[in-house]
Amino acid sequence: MGYRSEVYIGIVKEQKEDFNILNDDFNKIFELLEETATHIVYKGEYLKWYSGYEGVQSFNTIVGSNEDNFCVAMGEDYAIHSEIGEWYDYIELEVTLKILN
Q1: At what angle do helices 16-25 and 54-64 cross, to 10 degrees?
Q2: Which of 45, 52, 87, 100 qualifies as a cystine partner to 70, CB 3.0-4.6 A?
Q3: Using CA atoms, how far apart are residues 44 and 99, in angstroms rounded to an integer?
Q4: For 1-54, what is each residue's pLDDT tens digit?
Q5: pTM for this one?
């Protein structure tokens, strides 16, 4: 099956339309998570996020086009395996435990 990730992308508001067009081209794999004063933050779940994949390269290109954009991918093992930009200035990732029974 392969390694799957949660991917968070933050785009400056001026690039919102460009990101949405790209996201539409890839069947809306990202959902809007939050809109801040400066950024639109998106989340994709259960994604195969390898830099060699064409789709990942397309998203990385738009993220890399502005120094204020960011991307961070956290794998199933909760390890950060891919990052672009200073994402930690905009979001905080937490892992929590919930006992069910």
Answers
A1: 180
A2: 87
A3: 25
A4: 468 999 999 999 999 999 999 999 999 999 999 999 999 999 999 999 998 899
A5: 0.91
The contacts of residue 65 (CB under 8 Å, 6+ apart) are 15
Cβ–Cβ < 8 Å for 5, 74 = yes
CA distance 1 to 27: 20
Q: How many residues does the chain have?
A: 101
| H/E element, 18 | helix 16-25
Cα 29 from Cα 63, distance rounded (Å)? 15
Q: What is the DSSP string of 19-51?
A: HHHHHHHTTS--EEEEE-SSEEEEEEEEE---T
Task: Tell me the two tokens of residue 25.
Answer: 């081209």
Q: What are the residue boundaries of the structural domains of the chain, listed by start?
A: 5-89
SS3 92: coil
